[in-house]
Amino acid sequence: MTIEQIQSLLSRFYEGQTTPDEERLLADFFHREDVPEDLQQDKQLFLMLAQISDQEMPADIAEEITAFVNNLGQTEIQPLISEDKQRKGVLFRLKTPPKMWYRVAATVAILLAIGGGVLFHQRTSTTDPFRDTCKTPEEAAAELHKANAMITKASQQCLAPTHNAFEQVEDTKEIINRHITF
Questions:
Q1: CA triplet 52, 61, 13: central angle to 5 degrees?
Q2: Which residues pair with 94 in a beta bridge?
Q3: DSSP labels for 56-94?
Q4: CA 29, 32, 35 angle in degrees (round to 5)?
Q5: Which end of the chain has less Cβ packing within 10 Å, N or C?
Q6: How is residue 99 annotated by DSSP?
Q7: Could you give the count of Cα atoms lying within 13 Å of 120 in the half-sphere of its Cβ?
Q8: pLDDT the model gives residue 51
Q9: CA 152 distance to own-chain centroid
Q10: What does the alpha-carbon distance between residue 109 and residue 74 come to, in Å, rounded to a whole number?
Q11: Cβ atoms within 10 A of the Cβ of 25, count?
Q12: Which 8-state DSSP code applies to residue 76?
């Protein structure tokens, strides 16, 4: 596949319009080593999704989640699962059907959490203290010369009092030698 086709599929993927086969094509593409630099963040996302999808889910979890979501917003609370499963964790069934805005709010909250995580990851991964700060060797040489000039100036300022003291000691030796006769 060409990069343009991959980018088109990615756009459709982020809009939730891809088929499972198209998502497998994207996953296969991002498992390659030669992914272009501008798609590296998408590669990280697909590798994380692959790790998550490798985890096994309990057999009846889908039924429990569906029943819980379908009953959000009900007023009375009743146990949704049997007594033996309640010891592991408790899920409740609510009696009135949920309002649509609850679902929309939950979806927005999940999307904001995912977006915040991705943004945080991007910011922390781009703050490499050892990254190149110069784009060309000439620019790096110019910066090196600036740094060298600053170090030289600072060392001269530090050595100036020492040089003055050394000159005073030499002058004092000459005066002493002139006044002392052997």
A1: 40
A2: 77
A3: ---TTHHHHHHHHHHTTT-SSEEE-S-HHHHTT---EEE
A4: 80
A5: C
A6: P
A7: 6
A8: 75
A9: 39
A10: 20
A11: 16
A12: S
For residue 113 the two structure tokens come to 């959490």
User: pLDDT, tens digit, for every residue of 112-161?
Assistant: 888 888 877 776 655 555 566 778 889 888 888 888 888 888 888 877 78
Q: What is the DSSP letter of 38?
A: G
What amino acid occupies position 55? Q
pTM over 0.70: no
Between 73 and 79, name the one with better pLDDT: 73
- Copy the structure tokens of residue 93: 């069934």
Q: How far apart are CA 94 and CA 48, in angstroms?
A: 34
What residue type is 49 in one-letter code?
Answer: L
Lowest model confidence (mean pLDDT) among 76-80, 98-102, 144-148, 150-154 = 76-80
Residue 12 is encoded by which pair of tokens?
A: 């459709």
Q: Is the pLDDT of residue 93 over 70?
A: no
Among 105, 80, 109, residue whose Cα is nearest residue 95: 80
